């Protein structure tokens, strides 16, 4: 964040931009928290996810990661408005951001892999039995990500104070960057591959029901689209920033960091869009959600829900 440590004119110009960023973050926090809390309420008190199918446990952990990520957004918005941040708070926030965003991406990827084997390779029972160990897999993901995210606490992703010098490459920084790019680009390619194979398989299995096929294809591709919009731009911008470090004028570096901060705000949309995808992807979940929180839409939506043609479990 580059709102401070510069001339008064630059401060005023940057402050207006970062106040806008702050407003976006606040809006995402309010809408995202409301949606995710209602979703997790259904998982815990209505669906009793621990007794449900494998994918429900993964979905619950995905929602939990989104909520934990959203909790830190008020601090992010406050820092944007004040154009300053305490170093300790900055590092803690970055740790939680990387941990929960990484968990969100990891569970999204595991869900896609589970759907892939359930639809494309249903005969591979050994793999499916392993994937059905969802509680153990969930604990492993959280512990592994916690360990891999420690470098974010030791040295911040971006300078937590504008007066600090550019970082010198060290084993900790190198590990941090490898983890960051690995947890975004590898899952993206996995999602793309799984989605393509699932769509091909659905086309082969679909007989006459074009509406069902189109909806299933839309839901599968929506996950990839949301991932690409939310995570790829800011990851690419980070790569650009690393590439130009020390090679361009200070003003150009400032522009790249401003762009990065804006794309980070965009990445939080994932927490807002995930619950919407849940409602679209399961007829059972959609009916329950509408009956609990939007009963005035129930009569209108009932015929569509009754068709039971939206896929999420693929079982």
Automatic annotation (TrEMBL):
GO MF, any single term: G protein-coupled receptor activity
Subcellular location: Membrane
Pfam families with a match to the protein in the record: 7tm_1
Key words of the record: G-protein coupled receptor, Membrane, Receptor, Transducer, Transmembrane, Transmembrane helix
Main location as per UniProt: membrane
Bilayer-crossing regions: 18-45, 57-78, 98-117, 137-158, 178-196, 216-236
One GO CC annotation: membrane
Superkingdom of the source species: Eukaryota
Membrane topology designation: Multi-pass membrane protein
Domain G-protein coupled receptors family 1 profile span(s) in chain numbering: 35-278
Record PANTHER family: 12-(S)-HYDROXY-5,8,10,14-EICOSATETRAENOIC ACID RECEPTOR, HYDROXYCARBOXYLIC ACID RECEPTOR 2
Name of the protein described by the UniProt record: G-protein coupled receptors family 1 profile domain-containing protein
Species the sequence originates in: Sinocyclocheilus grahami
């Amino acid at each position: 964040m580059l709102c401070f440590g510069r001339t008064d004119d630059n401060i005023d110009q940057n402050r207006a931009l970062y106040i806008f960023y702050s407003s976006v973050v606040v809006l995402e926090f309010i809408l995202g928290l409301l949606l995710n809390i209602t979703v997790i309420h259904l998982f815990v008190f209505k669906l009793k996810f621990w007794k449900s199918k494998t994918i429900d446990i993964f979905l619950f952990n995905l929602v939990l990661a989104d909520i934990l990520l959203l909790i830190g957004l008020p601090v992010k918005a406050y820092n944007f408005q004040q154009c300053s941040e305490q170093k300790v708070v900055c590092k803690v926030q970055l740790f939680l951001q990387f941990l929960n965003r990484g968990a969100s991406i990891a569970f999204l990827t595991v869900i896609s892999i589970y759907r892939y084997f359930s639809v494309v390779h249903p005969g591979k029972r050994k793999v499916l039995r392993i994937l059905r160990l969802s509680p153990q897999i969930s604990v492993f993901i959280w512990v592994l990500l916690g360990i891999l995210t420690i470098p974010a606490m030791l040295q911040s992703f971006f300078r937590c104070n504008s007066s600090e010098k550019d970082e010198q490459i060290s084993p900790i920084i190198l590990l941090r960057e490898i983890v960051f790019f690995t947890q975004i680009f590898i899952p993206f390619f996995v999602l793309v591959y799984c989605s393509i194979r699932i769509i091909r398989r659905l086309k082969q299995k679909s007989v006459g029901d074009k509406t069902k096929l189109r909806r299933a294809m839309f839901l599968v591709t929506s996950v990839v689209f949301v991932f690409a919009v939310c995570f790829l731009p800011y990851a690419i911008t980070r790569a650009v920033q690393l590439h130009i470090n020390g090679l361009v004028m200070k003003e150009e570096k400032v522009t790249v960091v401003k762009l990065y901060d804006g794309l980070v705000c965009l990445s939080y949309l994932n927490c807002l869009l995930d619950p919407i995808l849940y409602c679209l992807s399961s007829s059972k979940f959609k009916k329950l959600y509408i009956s609990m929180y939007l009963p005035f839409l129930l009569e209108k939506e009932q015929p569509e829900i009754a068709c039971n043609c939206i896929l999420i479990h693929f079982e």
